[in-house]
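Technical note accompanying the year-one report. For the benefit of new consortium partners, we illustrate the data format agreed upon in the data management plan: each record pairs a sequence with a structure-token string. No post-processing was applied to the example shown here.
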Amino acid sequence: MATIRERNGKLIADFRYMGNPATASQTNTSQQAGMLTDAQCQNAQGKTKAQIESMANEKLTDARAYSLTSFAVTYNFKISDRVSRYGMDSRSKAICSLTFEGNQPSSKVLHWSVIG
């Protein structure tokens, strides 16, 4: 929550988290752009590209695509709540790979997989 107030003629923004401190890092992690949760990845099949863009808080462009053909496109996302078994520490996140049946906002996820 942000509060804007005036002090000595200057506007000051004060940012404070007003929820449960124990879940603060969880909330912030899953809302980072380009990341999905493990559950979001596993439940992605059948969702549209527009729905995934909303969940990941990121526009899925051709430049962002891992693989792009005339009939399918694949995007990779870090999984915010799952650590990769190939990483050196807990900062290494597993990857959610989503393949869409085309490259339109209405294109649906055909296949999902978790890497790591």
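Partners are asked to follow this layout when depositing records. Helices lie at 24-30, 38-42, 49-56.
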